[in-house]
Amino acid sequence: MSYTKLNRSAATLTKNRTEGSISPFSGMCVTCVDGCIGMCEIGKSAYRGPEVLYPQPFGIITAASEKEYPFDLSHFSIMGTAAGAHGCAADSDVATFEKVSVETAIGRDKSIKLKLPFVLGGMGSTNVAKQNWAGLGTGAAISGVVLTIGENVCAMDEGSEIKNGRVLRSPDMEMRVKAFQDWYDGYGAVVVQANVEDTRLGVQEYAIDKLGIQAVELKWGQGAKDIGGEVKIKSLKKAQELRRRGYIVLPDPEDPNVIKAFEKGSFKEFERHSRLGMVEEESFMRRVEELRRAGAKHIFLKTGAYRPADLARAVKFASKAKLDLLTVDGAGGGTGMSPWRMMNEWGVPSLEIWSLTYRYLHTLAQSGDYVPDTVFGGGITFEDQIFKALSLGAPYVKAVGMARAPLASAMVGKTIGKRITESQIPVYVERFGSSVEEIFVTSPELKLYYGDRFKDLPTGAIGVYTYFKRLSQGLRQLMAGNRKFGLEYITRDDIASLTKEAADISGISYVLDVDKDEVEKILKS
């Protein structure tokens, strides 16, 4: 079978002419007809060229791979039990699911407390993140989770003050930090991420010194791509400024012929690209020490779906540097703008890279080395996936990474709030009411907790909080079914592989082999 869909996707706004008769290996229509206007990716590329490399339309969408990988979390089942309890008295009147705690703490000193085991992955300079940041940042704060401010924010900010190649002030970065800090109540953390350009600009030093940031993240990559970040630029002036700030901008916005073509409307957007990071142990350790001297209290590392040797480097370097958190993002990941075919066809898929990560972390633990708290990311959206990911990586994985799903909840919350204001509530939503208090089911508890401040909560933030409320209850129900009343009690035998192939990849027992020894004892007793 083919795992890939070729030559057509809603992500690139393309489709085949003969949707029912498609060549499985090329993705082309079985009959390609002279006279077709070119709706497929090949056809659209014939007149728009490199524009078709990326998901569209830029700025109002997020995208993720539609490749059907051979294995994923659906190849595991959660093992419930009818006996005993961990972290709670084994008493039917006591061991109810609302008694389950999903709070945790991460970092070397465990000083970052979380109400939920969630880390919101770095969402940086793409328009879709910025336009929804009020909901995302505030929603993360009131939910008590980690929020990561992604790469390129300061350099993309037209209001930034940059002198001698160093950022002195960025209103956009200030806005993003403030959205979290204004609602912070002791749980969660706001983290500033950096790539090559950010490091050169001194973004993390600025955030530590001027904005009170305590946690920073070094970025090697993400699951969506193995090159630097990209965005689209509609303004010639901004494209030229970004080129002066050290970015790769295509086509060259300083070229007179390019300027003329842009002004004529031959193309309407420039591409801004970040440079490739180069991993080397000595420079990595040096950068960690620089950040600690600058005042960083917590240092994280995020790596993408690179080959196993690179994953081993990430695990080992994080151990040697005694980092607070390591995030491993599987292939297929989410993006505001990554090359579409790359997102589908590169890297180690989530299940496989998570399985390798567990092995490498376990090797460190057996050697007595420091094991950094770890996060698994890559397409996680619901409570069953959260439970399975935590189980797969236990006891080293302390949280899961999410980006597209929380952003979706922020977008929906924002949109509903706007429709309420405009008195244009869709019928699908109107059946729940016509006000914020009626439509958002968590409004009463938020109103009780925040009092008069409730009116200042962006509806996007209420959307994030309410979505996380669902995940929290769903996760607690699954944990109660396994009689695990705290995250620390989740183990790898809380799930079972449904196929022997999944068992071989993950090291998780095949379902018919689960409890083999205990079963024999029970039957012979």
What is the overall shape?
globular
* Rg, alpha carbons: 24 Å
The neighbouring-strand order within the major sheet is 5-6-9-10-14-15-17-18
Count the DSSP helices: 21
Please report the total strand number as a whole number.
Answer: 19
CATH C-level of the domain at 73-229 and 274-408: Alpha Beta
Task: Give the termini separation.
Answer: 48 Å
Instruction: Characterize the biggest β-sheet.
Output: 8 strands, parallel, barrel
- Determine the strand fraction and express it as a percent band: 5-15%
Architecture overview:
- There is one protein chain.
- This protein has 525 residues and is α/β, with parallel strands linked by helices.
- Among the domains are: 1-53, no CATH class; 73-229 and 274-408, TIM Barrel, CATH 3.20.20.
- It has 21 helices and 19 strands.
- The protein has an eight-stranded parallel β-barrel, surrounded by eight helices. It has a three-stranded antiparallel beta sheet with strand order 11-13-12, with helices on one face. Strands 1-16 form a two-stranded antiparallel sheet.
- Strand 17 (373-377), helix 14 and strand 18 form a beta-alpha-beta unit.
- Helix 3 (133-143) runs parallel beside helix 5, helix 3 packs across helix 19 and helix 11 (308-320) packs across helix 13 (350-366).
- The radius of gyration is 24 Å and the shape is globular.
- The model has no long low-confidence stretch (mean pLDDT 95).
Task: From the structure above, extract its key features.
525 residues, 3-stranded antiparallel beta sheet, alpha/beta, 8-stranded parallel barrel, TIM Barrel, single chain, 21 helices
